[in-house]
Write a structure and sequence with these properties.
Elements lengths: L9 E3 L5 E4 L7 E2 L2 E2 L6 E4 L3 E2 L10 E2 L2 E2 L12 E2 L6 E3 L10 H7 L2 E3 L4
Antiparallel strand pairs: 1-2, 1-9, 2-5, 3-4, 5-6, 7-8, 10-11
Protein name: PAAR repeat-containing protein
């Protein structure tokens, strides 16, 4: 599963790139930073705002897909770095050996913070 994206995490795009900028309701923190979602802006050096357009199909924050490393932006960019302790997956089958409960928690993995 890819790491969760948060405010200030960097993205890269054809215009250069820049940080994720909080542009929505801040109700979830990951590693003490606001969790990013689809529609949040990223600061593109050359072209201005570059909203996140792709996110998780299995984890939602305020009814919007959670953003992760590798998710795309409008201008063809991608989120480059994210949380070291929280991973966000897709909707789908639970991991092998998880049983019935695994399907409920398969989308989010939170590790021990340091």
């Amino acid at each position: 599963m890819p790491p969760a994206a948060r405010a200030t995490d960097p993205h890269i795009c054809p215009g250069g790139g820049g940080p994720i900028v909080p542009s929505g309701e801040i109700t979830v923190l990951i590693d003490h930073l606001p969790a990013a979602t689809v529609t949040w802006q990223t600061a593109c050096t050359a072209d201005g705002d570059d909203p996140i357009v792709r996110g998780s199909t299995g984890v939602f924050i305020n009814h919007l897909p959670a953003a992760r490393v590798g998710d795309q932006t409008t201008l063809g960019g991608a989120i480059m770095m994210g949380s070291l302790t929280c991973e966000i997956g897709e909707m789908g089958s639970p991991p092998a050996g998880a049983g019935g409960f695994g399907g409920v928690v398969a989308g989010l993995s939170v590790g021990k913070g340091g």
